[in-house]
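Chapter review: from sequence to fold.
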Amino acid sequence: MSNMMKAAIQYAIDDIRIEERPVPEIGPGELLLKTRACGLCGGETMAWYKTEPKVLGHEPSGEVVEVGAGVTDYKIGDRVFVNHHVGRVDSHLSRRGHFTRDPFYKTMKLDPGGVCEYFRVTAQHLAMDTHKLPDSISDEAAVTIEPWACVLSGLKRCMIQPGDTVAVVGAGFMGQGFVHLAPLFGAGKVVALDFSDWRLEKAKFFGATHTINPKTEDAVEAMRALNNGRLADTVIVIAPFPSAWDQALALTEVGGCLHLGAPMPPDTDWVQSGHKAYFDQITITSRYSSDHTDTYSYIRLLEAGRIKAEEAISHRFDINDSAEAFKMLVEAEKSLKIVVYPHGIPDSKKDQAHA
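The token string follows.
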């Protein structure tokens, strides 16, 4: 194996370059993984959220190619999933269940990232959130573990009661995840809202019982019409814009829950009526990322066949075409999860590449 590898480096939203980087060296208690596939995340398109340059991607599935001293639970050839950030158990925030808000969480990263030929897994990653993949979970299904574990984590906080009506504002890949997993938490009617009819059709496949396009109909009236005159018990908003949050709040029934599923840029104000905030008794929740408990739950559901993960993969690219793949991600039109293969698209998937 060469000591150099290909990596897709993000310098800016419109500047993705393929460069040679050293293969990471591992130490005791660590693993070196060959990247089998890596998903691209919409969060990487938010310029305010990321610092460049960096190796693109944080949703990889990998294969063990080197085992550090003292590692006994993994061997060469094992396929594994590793969460890109991992927490710890001995801090105030962690002890209260807020693993992802402990500053330690974001300091723990894959070395050097996901869209590269090899990456290093630290001992802390192994201790907290690394999982062997059974044969029933494909490499492509595995790239959904990190993002849709975030969906699962958010749904845990939505206080859904059996039979509740759940609305999802924004039907991109993450929105599709909320649509798809909400019934596992007891949702009855699941309503997807988006300006794209293409995405709304995809939402029906993933379990939406109803769809609304706010571009062509009044969303609040449409919600009342399909829900016996009521608004939604839980509304999840993925679109990170004040207008989308306003729409989501307007769709939330008195005593319901509004879940903020994606962040707005810093210094963006969202102003609401204090009078309604008191009397409507709407609980507002949010959840940044997923922790090791969410990952474990999602993998169990995936292994049980409850999740149509591979159906969410819309496009496949070779690492050399990472710039094209990222451009598609930024455009956010007729695509869901985009997967990049650092060692080339497998023959079995080549007829599905770029489509």
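Two observations follow directly from the output. The mean pLDDT is 96. The two ends are 32 Å apart (CA to CA).
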